[in-house]
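Methods: holo model generation. Sequences were used as deposited, without trimming of termini or removal of tags, and paired with ligand SMILES retrieved from the corresponding compound records. Each pair was processed once, and we did not select among multiple samples. The sequence and zinc ion SMILES for this entry were:
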Amino acid sequence: MAQEVKGVIARGKGQPVELTTVLVPDPGPGEAVVRVQACGVCHTDLHYREGGINDDFPFLLGHEAAGVVEQVGAGVTDLEPGDFVVLNWRAVCGSCRACRRGKPWYCFSTFNASQPMTLSDGTALSPALGIGAFAEKTLVHSGQCTKVSPAARAAAVGLLGCGVMAGVGAAVNTGGVSRGDSVAVIGCGGVGDGAIAGARIAGAAKIIAVDMDPRKLEWAKGFGATHTIDARSADVVSAIQDLTEGFGADVVIDAVGRPETWKQAFYARDLAGTVVLVGVPTPDMQLEMPLIDFFSRGGSLKSSWYGDCLPTRDFPMLVDLYQQGRFDLDAFVSEEIALDQVEAAFDKMHKGEVLRSVVVF
Ligand SMILES: NC(=O)c1ccc[n+]([C@@H]2O[C@H](COP(=O)([O-])OP(=O)(O)OC[C@H]3O[C@@H](n4cnc5c(N)ncnc54)[C@H](O)[C@@H]3O)[C@@H](O)[C@H]2O)c1
Ligand SMILES: [Zn+2]
Ligand SMILES: [Zn+2]
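and the model returned the structure below.
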């Protein structure tokens, strides 16, 4: 028997989101129904609504979530009703080429629920990042549920499900930040501040935050930024060089995802340093640069999908650090909102008023 729940959908490109009835089927083999307790509003949800990801409307938005397992389908052995879980969009398959080669964070056959959630008229919904958690309950693959300490606050740990993990992982996993490094992070939203927090955890000596919004720069200091640059008034590349004895940073992370910020990241890094692109560009964006610069500056130019994380490895570890007071996940939660306030939260995100609005059920 499908259950009727309330959920937030995007019907078409650029249209305001809508709170409506969603039908959640009973879990089939390998699936689980999760009662969502909290779900953060990520910039990627807005990308979906704007048609920037794909055209598979209607979307059931929301994907940075934590909740309690309510039902599991046949064959699910590592999860049971009552488990507190953070949802992830990288349930690795274990058998694709990437998994077999020991690089499961590149898994290209990740698991999602195979049954669709639908509108009342039967229209299948595309759940954002295979999750769809701006809903009282959601249907996912059991591998998308990572058990963490039930004592942790859902609104905070749910953020590990996407943006904060993407940021932490961009620094630690993709960028390989280690002790003594200089790191610059361009764009200090939830993802960029995750990268700053990750760089601090990894022992970076200098952490330079770059944003166009002074409020964001102030918050970035709380996550570990040792220096800040206001991109509205400064030349970002030379300001980063000035702060690093003229060299540039060892690792520069672009958490905006635009040609101009990527170029800043490229030129603001030391020779043979690392650039990590974690912000998501839109399909129309182009980059034109002298090829000789790629050659002569050396180093590595990387993209970070979900911070190259492995949820089973990384989520419980970060929840431990959070509970020990070494990683301030609470500081990412700017406000707790109700399910009918997602559209307003997009607006606040746009105006830079919040790091994360989190829907709490
Ligand atoms: N790679 C991944 O796996 C992954 C996962 C989650 C989110 N993302 C992407 O990461 C990006 C950031 O997400 P978010 O939730 O932190 O968004 P956000 O809107 O909260 O933050 C973006 C920040 O960038 C700043 N900014 C914008 N233009 C700038 C510029 N030219 N120079 C300096 N700063 C600038 C804004 O002021 C804001 O503080 C988005 O593109 C999102 O889709 C990627
Ligand atoms: Zn795989
Ligand atoms: Zn996200």
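The first helix runs from residue 43 to 49.
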